[in-house]
Amino acid sequence: MDYKKQDRLYDEKVLEIARVSRTVKGGKRISFRSVVVVGDKNGKVAVATGKGTEVSTSIKKASSRAKKRFINIKMNDNESIKRQVISSYGTSKVLLRPAPKGTSIIAGPVVRAVCELAGIKNIVSKLYGSNNKKNTAYATLNGLKKASLDGI
């Protein structure tokens, strides 16, 4: 499949760029870690991290990893999730609640970015515990995955 055509179908948003360092014999080695969310605004979304010596390298790595890990989100008629769900990743805990049509996305910046790129138009969320952007993004993704499961 032609990747250039595939790239045009997805929107991506950089959630965080962090400067990280490790100590080696000669001193400190600096690199960058980026957290990127990629989605088609029609039920497909993914989150991934990438590390590199330059910011642009880390963003490219993260977006290419994300494009290999899409999950499908099932939505109801209100363009919201099917049921309420609580999900956690690390010490971040996210409550996602379906909302009626016209409510819009009531959420923090990280949860909002993931939901917008997934195509969700109406949702209410609350973040508990740590507000670490990486953990919050993965917790939101896990919650959307849980809410899409049938029969639970």
Topology at a glance:
Layout: H1 3-9, E1 11-24, E2 27-39, E3 44-52, H2 55-66, E4 71-72, E5 85-89, E6 92-98, E7 105-106, H3 109-118, E8 123-129, H4 133-148
Parallel strand pairs: 7-8
Antiparallel strand pairs: 1-2, 2-3, 3-4, 5-6, 6-8
Helix pairs in contact: 3-4
How many angstroms separate the termini?
36 Å
Count all strands and give the number.
8
Give, in spatial order, the strands making up the sheet with the most strands. 1-2-3-4
The share of residues in helices is 25-40%
Largest sheet features: 4 strands, antiparallel
Structural class: alpha+beta
CATH architecture call of the largest domain: 2-Layer Sandwich
Spans of at least 5 consecutive residues whose pLDDT stays below 50 are none
Tell me the count of domains: 2
The oligomeric state is single chain
Q: Radius of gyration, rounded?
A: 16 Å
Q: State the shape.
A: elongated
